[in-house]
Structure formats: structure tokens, C-alpha cells
Specification:
265 residues; 4-stranded parallel beta sheet; 3-stranded antiparallel beta sheet; 7 helices; TIM Barrel
Length: 265
């Protein structure tokens, strides 16, 4: 007995708005397919399964972060935006993946994490080195709350809580100030108010587009615009920390930033 599977009707993969009707398949590279037997999934493993994805009717492969990372948050703490973590392969492996997808009429979308970087990214290493470093303003640094001893409980610049528990501010003994991290303390928030930051990130996007990547999924991009006043948030019943979300979710300049990104990239 022969089973006839329904024919897949693909989205218009070549049209300008292919992303509106495409079938998108997300892959977390570490756990999808291991090509070399080391127990860790990799890019070559994904490339070796492209015929399977095509048979499933996939139009777009959404690749979760494969950038160099300390892996504090499963790769969403990026220490280099323009390379591949050696555990997953090389830039040549990513090129081969993109070429294999394109040969089958499929597209590649990378997961970009632009609200924050790793605290091991060279930008942050420079930023935390001194208060007068040229990259100091690339992240959100603030002194302790007025009248409070820096580094003591309650001295954080605002009462915001982190999504990963605890305060959203980490005291840095090197300069005696705090940096903002809405997620892990190893994921300091980038300061999109600084145009140098935005244009450095746009350069990253252009780098990948020039290598053949077709688009991007922007992780928590709705958090990148923050109220520069950084007001305290309301403390809800049963909560220890204030809710800062009204001051950073779809913040005051979010549409301006997205329009600028569209123009520049």
C-alpha cells in the first residue's frame, strides 16, 4: 500500500513579502543534529538535514543564536555578533548552510539579540573599565540611589526587578556604579539612546546580509527603547521589586528606532 502525502504549497519565497506567508521552522543548533559525534548539535548537522526540512514544507529556517557566547542564557548572551561559536562550527559552515537552503529555494533567518550583550563582549569590557571610557555610554550605568551606600540592598538606581529574579541592577566595584540588566546580570542592556550603539548594531546586520542571510528575528526588540528618566515602577502586591515594564516595553522611541533600522539596513 502506498501512502500519498498531500503536496506542500510553498509560500512565494522570492517575493518581497515572503515572510508574511512562509512556513518558519526554528532550530536551536545545540540540540538539533550532531555531525561529528561530540554530543553537541552543530551547523553541519543542520545542513545535513535540509532535504528533510524541505520535505516537511519549510520555507524559512529560523536559527537560534549560534554566536560566540559564555552560554549563561543558552546563547542569548552574545560575546561576538559577527562570528560563529566554535562548538557549532565556523563561518564557512554557516555559509554552507545558507547556500544549501538557497539551493532548495529556502531562506535563512538569524536570531539577533540587540537589547543586551554578554558582559564578556568587548564593548562591555571597555564600558565597565572606567567612567570616562569612550564606550561607557554604550550601556545603562547609573550611580546609587541618592543618600544610599553603593552596593547595599535598596541602593539600586531604580526599584526594577529582573526577569531572572532579583534587582535589574548590578553593582560594579570597578567604578562604583550600577549597570542595568533586565535579564541575567551577565546580560547588560545596550543603550539605544546612543547613536553609536545603534549604528554598530546596524553594521552587524549588514555583515550577515552580505554573507547571504535573508533576514532576522529580533529578540525582545520591543525592550530597546527605555524612558531615559528610569523612573521607579509600581510595586505590585506580593512583589519585592517594582514593575519597570511601562518604561521599557515599546518605549518612547521604539518606532523611531525601527524606522531608522529599516532605512539604514
Amino acid at each position: 500500500m502506498t501512502e500519498h502525502l498531500p503536496t506542500h504549497v510553498a509560500a512565494d519565497r522570492s517575493g518581497e513579502q515572503w515572510w508574511k506567508s512562509a512556513v518558519v521552522y526554528q532550530i536551536y543548533p545545540r540540540s538539533f543534529a550532531d555531525s561529528d559525534g561530540d554530543g553537541i548539535g552543530d551547523l553541519a548537522g543542520i545542513t545535513g538535514r535540509l532535504d528533510h526540512l524541505d520535505h516537511l514544507g519549510v520555507d524559512v529556517l529560523w536559527l537560534s543564536p549560534m554566536f560566540p557566547s559564555p552560554q549563561d542564557d543558552n546563547g542569548y548572551d552574545v560575546s561576538d555578533y559577527t562570528d560563529v561559536d566554535p562548538m557549532f562550527g565556523t563561518l564557512a559552515d554557516l555559509d554552507a548552510l545558507a547556500e544549501g537552503l538557497h539551493r532548495r529555494g529556502m531562506k535563512l533567518v538569524l536570531d539577533l539579540v540587540f537589547n543586551h550583550s554578554s558582559d564578556e563582549h568587548p564593548w562591555f569590557v571597555e564600558s565597565r573599565s572606567s567612567t570616562d571610557n569612550d564606550r561607557r555610554d554604550w550601556y545603562w550605568w547609573r550611580p546609587a540611589r541618592p543618600g544610599m551606600e553603593p552596593g547595599t540592598p535598596g541602593a539600586e538606581p531604580t526599584n526594577w526587578g529582573s526577569f531572572f529574579s532579583g534587582p535589574a541592577w548590578e553593582f560594579d566595584e570597578t567604578t562604583g556604579e550600577y549597570y542595568l540588566h533586565l535579564f541575567s546580570r551577565k546580560q547588560p542592556d545596550l543603550n539605544w539612546e546612543n547613536p553609536e550603539v545603534r549604528h554598530a548594531l546596524y553594521d552587524v546586520m549588514r555583515f550577515w546580509l552580505e554573507r547571504g542571510v535573508d533576514g532576522f528575528r529580533m529578540d525582545v526588540v520591543n525592550f530597546v527603547s527605555k524612558d531615559p528618566a528610569l523612573p521607579d515602577g509600581q510595586v505590585h502586591p506580593g512583589s519585592r521589586y517594582g514593575d519597570g515594564s511601562p518604561f521599557y516595553i515599546c518605549g518612547p522611541r521604539i518606532h523611531e528606532f525601527m524606522h531608522e533600522m529599516h532605512r539604514e539596513v
